[in-house]
Amino acid sequence: MRRLGSWLGDNADGAIALVLAAAVGVIGMLPDGALSDDLRDQFISSGTLLVLALLTTAILRDRWRQEPMEDAIRETFTATSGTLSVLPDRIERLEGVVAEAQRALADMSVLHVLNSADETAKAHADARRDTDRWIFKGGTGTYLRAVTLPECVAAARRDRRALLMRLEILDPTNEEACGAYASFRRSMSQDPDGTGEVWTAERTRKEAYATILAACWHQQRFGLLDITVGLSATMTTFRWDQSASSLIITGEDPRRALLARRGSFYYEWCSTELRASLDQARRVPIELARPLPLGDEPTIEEARKLFETLGVPLPRAFGERDVADIIRKALRAKNPYV
């Protein structure tokens, strides 16, 4: 009832006009004789005029009510147009924020932690596949000689494409650095590694010499191999392996490693770091080894002459057995992680 009373209060003129129109209609339908013709005509004419007056009043009232509404709508449109004028700038800023967030997520998504030796081995295999370059920085390059270098050369030879390799290892003529490296490896584990040997200063020097010999030997047999070897006076506890597609960083434990994809900021940062580090290392003049003969199984004399020519002479204490051990490590290196 309250709702009906409120409606009648807001629409009284329309309701009265409706009632009068109904009354006029009823009077017009009365049978002849119920009212005199003059009274009926007068009542119908007056009622009709009254209904028209009420309808006119309702129309004028509605227009009066609409004017403030139109003003409000006009003001709303004015305010909205102002907001819409700055909306493109806000949308552009929002797109910039979204793009930055996407780049941050992309960088996070390409830095992966490898939690097993199998994952690390698979990452290395994927990195070697179809790569035209390899940058290495580490201790002596044992895994590099056993797996990376021969497999990358074999793939490049098969595809008849050039291969660029940049290697930075410990300087085998630096006894202090080699001794520090051996002490560090032994402090991590006293047991022999996958090669069946324990780490000593002598073994460290032999492994580094073997990497230099392997680089020269492979270059003589594959003319499209562009290889550089730098010798560092300081040891590192990490090993960096960077291919055209990824960067793999391993430590003492091969079950844990980091993998960064090309295009990430971390990949680019490490690429700059590796180049700068190699520039500071003592470069081995590999090009001087080209005219020197190295057989499929280099002799002890060939190996000694090679190291003398390259400016990294073998220690005087190294006998024939030691040189033969270096040759074996260079050409038939064992995977230390098997």
Question: Could you please say which CATH topology of the largest domain applies here?
Answer: Endonuclease, Chain A
Instruction: Find the count of extended strands (DSSP E, 2+ residues).
Output: 8
Q: What percent of the residues sit in helical stretches (DSSP H or I)?
A: 55-70%
- Report mean pLDDT, rounded to a whole number: 84
| Cα separation of the termini | 92 Å
What does the main sheet amount to? 8 strands, mixed
Number of domains: 2
**Highest CATH level, the class of the largest domain:** Alpha Beta
Total helix count?
A: 10
Identify the overall geometry.
rod-shaped
- What fraction strand? 5-15%
Structural class: alpha+beta
What is the succession of H and E elements?
A: HHHEHEHEHHEEEEHEHH
Explain what the structure shows.
- The protein is of the alpha+beta class and 338 residues long.
- It has two domains: 1-109; 111-331, Endonuclease, Chain A (2-Layer Sandwich), CATH 3.30.870.10.
- It is built from ten helices and eight strands.
- The protein has helices at residues 2-10, 12-28, 37-109, 117-128, 142-159, 175-188, 201-221, 265-280, 300-310, 320-331, and strands at residues 111-114, 133-137, 163-170, 225-232, 239-242, 246-250, 257-261, 282-284.
- The chain has an eight-stranded mixed β-sheet, with helices on both faces.
- Strand 2, helix 5 and strand 3 form a beta-alpha-beta unit.
- Helix 2 packs across helix 3 and helix 6 (175-188) crosses helix 7.
- The longest helix is centred in the N-terminal third of the chain and has 73 residues, at 37-109.
- The radius of gyration is 46 Å and the shape is rod-shaped.
- It starts with a helix and ends in a 7-residue tail after the last helix.
- Keywords: Membrane, Transmembrane, Transmembrane helix.
- The chain crosses the membrane at residues 12-31, 43-60.
